[in-house]
Amino acid sequence: MTLLACLLLNCQGALTHPLHVLAERAVEGNLLFDMLSLPARQAIFRSMSLHMVSAGTTIINQGDTDATKFYVLEKGTCDVLINNEATGYIPKKVHTYPSGSGFGELALLYSAPRAATVLAVTDCKLWVMERAVYNSIKRTYQEQVAALKRKMVSSVPMLAVLSEESRDLVAGALEAVEFKAGQTIFRQGEKGDRFYIVQEGAVTVSKTSAGERTVLAKLAEGSYFGERALIKDDVRAADVTADIYTVCYSLGRKAFDELLGPIEDVWRFEALRKVPVLFALSEQQLFELAHCMKNHAISAGQMVFRQGDPGDVFYVIEEGTFTIFDNSGKELARVSKGSCFGELALMHQDLRAANVKALTDGVLLALHRDDFNGLLGSLTHIRHMWRFEALRKVPLFSTLTPPQRSQLCTVLKPLHVKAGTAIVQAGNTGNTFYVVEAGTCVVHNVASQEIGRLGPTMYFGELALLRNEPRAATVLALTDCDLLELGRADFLQLMGPLAKALESQAAKYGLAVSAKKDIKATDLVKIAVLGSGAFGQVMLVKHEGAYMALKSLSKQQILEMGLHEHVKREKQIMAECDCPFMVNLVTSFKDGSHLYMLMECVMGGELFTYLQSRSGPLKEDHARFYAASVVCGLEYMQEHNLMWRDLKPENLLIETTGYVKMADFGFAKKMPPGQKSNTLCGTPEYLAPELVTQAGHTRAVDWWALGVLIYEMVAGYPPFYDEDRVAMFKNICQVKYSVPSHFSKEVRDLIKRLLVHNPNQRMGALKAGAADVKAHPWFANFDWAAFSKRQLKAPYIPQSNKRYVSTGVFKDF
C-alpha cells in the first residue's frame, strides 16, 4: 500500500490528535478545506511537517513567486507587513496572527507572488503543508469518491441501462446527505421525489399497518431505496430510518430531469442512439422521438410480427426477452431490454425479413413510420439533408449549386470500417473521397505522427476526385466508423461538364493543401509583431497574398517550463476545430529551435482593449451581440466534447467586420460528458467555484465564465472582484455579487442562471445545452439565423488603414 493510501485510510483516533484539533480550528471557514471530507482533511494534516523558527525570522516574503506552503501556527505570534505604493514603500503592519492561526493558503491553489510579508515576532512552532502533497491527497480522495459513486450508480438496475457517459453524469450529480442515528429519512405516505444510495452506515425500512410496525428490510452500505421517485411522484410505501450515523448519496427527480431528461425518455434515447439508420438525427431529435414512442404490453409466446408481413413499425424492448427466427425455425438472435428491431420500417414500406416472438412477458416501445414522418419528416430526406450539409462544408464544392450538391448526395455510398483499419495510406494514389458519418478517424503524417482527428460531418481525400496524386497523409479508423465514399468515376459522370470550373477551384484550394504539407517559416513574409510572451511571439505574416498570424514558440523554453503537453494539446485541438466563431489553425510546422502555428489573422484587436477604451460599460444590445459569438463558439466546443477554460475579454478578438472570435486554446481540453478534470487554470476573476475549490470540473465552467463576461460587459467590471484574492475567491464560492440598478430584469435573470454554484444545475450545462441560453428572454428578439450568416450589424467596426490594420491594438499574449 502506498504512503498516500495509508494517509487516507489510517485515520482511526485522528479526531483527538492534537495536531488535527489545531489544524481543524485553523482551517475553519477556509474555502480550500470546506469541500473536503473529514478523512481527506485528516490525511492532509498527517502530511504536515514541523518547523521551529526564531523571533525575527521572515516566514513569508512579499513578492515571492515560488510560494508553495500553507502554515498553521501552533505557538507564537507573527506580524503581517505590507510594502507598496500605498504605504510609501515603507513596511507597514496590517495584522497579527496569534497562536492557532493559519496563513498562506493561496499557495495551495496556484503560483502567485506573495501579497504580504509574515514575520515571526516571537519564537514560533509552525506546521507546514506543501501544495504538491495537498493536491495529491485531495485528488486521490476525489478519484476514490468518483469511482465509488460510479460503482453505486451502476448497481441500481434502472440506472445501469444508461450509457457510461450518462451514468457518469448521474454519479457527478449525486449529493452527500448526512443523517443522525434514529433520524427519519422519509415517512410512509409522504410524496417522494428523491432516491438514495447508502454510502456509509445502515438504515431500517419499516411499514406500519393497523397500528403495528413491521420491519421489511435492513439496508447497509451500497444499498439503494426510493428509486421510483425518479420516474414520477411516488407515495412512499414505508418509513426509512437511520440506525446509526449514516451518509447517503441522493439525487432528486428535478435535478435528474434537468441533467438528462425524464428517465423513461432517457432509457428510450439510449436505445435509439444505437440504431444505425438514425445516425443523422441530433440528440434533440432523438429525445423528441423517445418522448412520442408508445408502450405495448406483450405476453410470453405472443408473435410481434411474422416474416413477410408488411412493416411500418419500429420497436425498442423496454422489458422482457424476445427471439428472432426465420421460417425454418432457426434462431437468428435473442434480444432483451434496450435492444431494438424493425428499424428499416422507418425508411420505407418493407416486408419483414424474419419472425419475432416474445419468450417472456414484456413491454415494447413502438414508433410508427407515420408518427416519425409527422414529427421530423421523412428519415430518407433527413439522411439526404445531412449529406447535403456535409458536402457544403467542402471548399472544393463551394462553386456547386444546391441542385448539383444534391445530385452528389445520391451517389455517396455507405462504408463501414472497423477500428484500426487504414482507410487511406500516405503515398498511395487515391481516387475516393470520404465523409465521416459516425465514429472518429485519426490522421497521421508520413512520419506517423498524429496531426488531427476527424469526426462526424468531417471529410478527407477530396482532391482525389480530380487528380491522380499520392495521398499526403494516412487516415486510420480510431473507432468503428461509418463513412460515405464517392469514387472519381461516379463523380466525373455527374460533374464532368463542371470539371474545368472545379479544377480552377481545386487550384486555389490546392495551394492551401500543398502549403500545409510544405510550408516553412522562410516561406512567410513577416510584417509586424502582434504580441510577445514568455516563450514566444505572434507575428503578422503574409503568404500567397493572404495575411495570417504566426505563433512561434521556443522549444527550449517550452521544455524548461514543462509546457510540452500543454502546447501539443492546443495544436491538436485547434487542428480538430473548424468554427466561424473561433480563430482557426491553418497549419503547424517546426524547425530546429521553434514550433510554429499558422492561424487565421483577426486584426481588430481584443475585446478587452475596446472595453478599456470606452468611457462606460456596453449597452445591453451591444453586450448581447458579443455574448452571442461566445454562445455559438461554446456550443460548437460542447458538441465536440471540448472545454475552453480561458474565457475572458482578452481572448475575444474583433474581426474587421466587428464580429468576434474566440482565441487562445492553451487551456482547452477534450472532456467527454460525465468526466472531470482537476487542473486549475484560467483567469482568477473568471474561475467557477469548482475550479477555486479544485473539486473537479466539467465543461460547465465555460458557462459560468460566460455569466461573468456578460456581467463585466454590462457593468464595466467583473462581479466578484476584490483586491484581496482570498476575499474574491470567497465571493465566487458563495456566489456573492451585487447587481447594478441599470441591469434589465432579463440580463439579471440570465446571469443568475449562469452563475449557479452547482455545475449540474447551471444553464448551458443542462440537457438542452446552449439551446437553453439561446432561448433565454434576454435573447428573445435576437436573430440567431441572421447572426450566424454575419447579416447583423456589428456595434463597433475597428479602424483600419489601406496597408494593414494597426497592430497596436494587441496586448502581450
Automatic annotation (TrEMBL):
Keywords, ordered alphabetically: ATP-binding, Cytoplasm, Kinase, Magnesium, Metal-binding, Nucleotide-binding, Serine/threonine-protein kinase, Signal, Transferase
Chain ranges of the AGC-kinase C-terminal domain: 780-813
Matches recorded under InterPro entries: AGC-kinase_C (IPR000961), cGMP_dep_kinase (IPR002374), cNMP-bd_CS (IPR018488), cNMP-bd_dom (IPR000595), cNMP-bd_dom_sf (IPR018490), Kinase-like_dom_sf (IPR011009), Prot_kinase_dom (IPR000719), Protein_kinase_ATP_BS (IPR017441)
Residue ranges occupied by any Cyclic nucleotide-binding domain in the UniProt entry: 32-137, 158-268, 277-393, 396-497
UniProt domain Protein kinase: residue ranges: 524-779
Signal sequence residues: 1-16
Superkingdom assignment: Eukaryota
Active site: 646 (proton acceptor)
A GO molecular-function descriptor: cAMP-dependent protein kinase activity
List of residues binding ATP: 530-538, 551
GO cellular component: cAMP-dependent protein kinase complex
Name used for this protein in its record: cGMP-dependent protein kinase
Organism: Coccomyxa subellipsoidea (strain C-169) (Green microalga)
